[in-house]
Amino acid sequence: MELPFTVDAVSNICCKVVKNVLESSTKKQIKYSSTILKVPRISLRPEMGCFVQFTGDYNGLAVMNFSANAAMEIYRSYMVAMGIDEKELAKEYTSSEVPDSIGEIVNQIMGQLMRMVESKLDLRAFCGQPKALSLNNSIILTIDSEFNEENRRLSFTISGHRFYVELAMESSTLIPMKQ
Asked: pTM surpassing 0.85?
């Protein structure tokens, strides 16, 4: 029996990982949509985007996009949960502390995602250091693959603010082996 495309299996795991990591690190409730969107391409979008490539048994690219409000909510909650006084926090999403913190959180998400995929699917991949930046315009990203890519968008909410994870992976199918 064939399983769904790899990107769908990874997307499903990703929803759970993002929820777990962010709830743990921000002490806020995170909700995700029960629907995964198939999209024609992925991109970094204003106002804050973070991207990271992963390679190994499966290859792809993950992008997280935040409105300024969502980025600030995650940043503030993360820092306060670590014991930082709210008076010491950055006031604008364009302050260097905000993308630095978002990048660290995405690094935690990707680390747990890679471990969960390996645990559930017995496939291993590694990722580089995520890069987060403030944006005024969208930037379309693609993976360098000789195969078609599959793209998905996952929708999340924190304190009423939406943010998104977009995944691009080589088009492939998981086929369980009998042992």
From this structure: yes
